[in-house]
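ARCHIVE RECORD
Type: protein–small molecule complex
Small molecule: zinc ion
Source of inputs: curated submission
Record status: active
Notes field left blank by submitter.
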Amino acid sequence: MALRQIVTVPHPVLRRRAIEVTDFGPELQKLIDDMIDTMRDAPGVGLAAPQVNVAQRVIVVEYGDEEAGIPHQLYAVVNPRIVRFSKETEIGTEGCLSVPNVIGEVERAFSIELRGFDRHGKPLHLKPEGWLARIFQHEIDHLNGVLFTDRAVRLQRVSPEMAAAMDRV
Ligand SMILES: [Zn+2]
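STRUCTURE (tokenized, with ligand):
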């Protein structure tokens, strides 16, 4: 396992549509292991492959909130797609490891239904809610070349210390 460099705006890979994964071999396994290490080192609660300069449809998420009843869990999802967005939305403050020292308010679906594959190619079906659903929506946006700054209102610059105190994705 190894750390990879997180690319930041205006790197063009962040604006590309990432391609579907078709090979679940050793290269994908190494990519996912490296993404988990890189996310934890940042630290962050989510990371999409384009953020480490790999234009493939792979995301990792690690999050939990015992108070909200969300168990701490690590997810690696290949070729994720959102098949349902709740009508109910929620506004939350987001930051991004690829957009340093900027935060903004983003309206997102409160819950989603997500399909994709695990790292070995087994189908996955997830129904995250709340902050976990927000993280997945943010990461899947990365696979489509969309940044939270495209969706946010009240963007503001913050100090590196304040940015580091957020759950960045
Ligand atoms: Zn991000």
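CURATOR ANNOTATION: The first strand starts at residue 46 and ends at 48.
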